[in-house]
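Predicting structure from sequence has reshaped protein science. With that in mind, we have picked out one protein's residues alongside their backbone shape tokens:
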Amino acid sequence: MPSFDIVSKIDTTAVDNALAGVTKEMDVRYDFKGSHCEVSRTEDAILIKADDELKRRQVEELIVTHLTRKGVDTKALEFEKPEQAGGNSVRQTVQVRQGVHREVAQKIVKAIKGAKLKTQAAIQGEEIRVSGKKRDDLQATMAMIKALDIDLPLQYENFRD
């Protein structure tokens, strides 16, 4: 029976390369001279430290630009509310979302069932397996999912005939 998986994965190497590019550009740019702005990455988050709100917005813009250049979908970024750090500095955490979370997966499965297509969807951890009798049904399901307004970059992989 033909099937495919719906996943949401981000290339962490591309994220690291983009953040290295952001750091290099901050070292070179005139408006960042003498500032104590920095960008660091943990397992699933990016931490922005900036002198003030203006520089934080500029760093945020740089991150989005460099990630777009590296081919990373910026829908995977979830910018949290900026908070005051020591002194006059500002700190912001940016979550890098990976995997299809339970609520989004349930929404996708409900949409597939509601579309009356001849496919079945099953949530398997942080991915969704869609199976059907015909390849055309699966392709119609892919098109329907792409038409949904989901705020998460989705990839379709492991297509088996």
